[in-house]
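agent: user wants the structure for Transcriptional regulator MraZ from Nitrospira defluvii. delegating to structure tool.
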Amino acid sequence: MFAGEYLCKVDDKGRFLIPSPLRERLEAEGNQVMFVKNTEQTLWMYSAKEWEKVLERTRITLDEDQSRLFMHHVMSQAGTSDIDKAGRVLIPSRLRKLVPMDEDQEIFLVGMYHRLEVWGPSEWRRYLTRTEDRYEQDMAKIQNLL
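agent: tool returned. relaying tokens verbatim.
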């Protein structure tokens, strides 16, 4: 399971060092990750093993037309990347352009159970501010789950 938020510096080539707690889990599930475009100027990042589970769920659940839409709008936009020996991963350039990074070229990795989300720092902070009221309203239910 992925949890927490991690601020990562992106180098000129578009690589970032995966924080060690995340890297251990990712490497245990294969040495490759899949980046998928999300709707909120973010990317979803899956381990190779988890991505295979996603693909299997789509094969089982989607009808032929839905499957074609998935292939045309999700798979065609996805990109793979290997984790190098230094623990870095390259965000494919066409996908990197979708994540608005500040001048200091940083991203936030946010743990989301079975995947990670890749956010630009300003967008992440705006999102947290925008959803704070909803979080506070639902906090009683969230606390009961903990």
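agent: one observation worth passing along. The first helix runs from residue 20 to 28.
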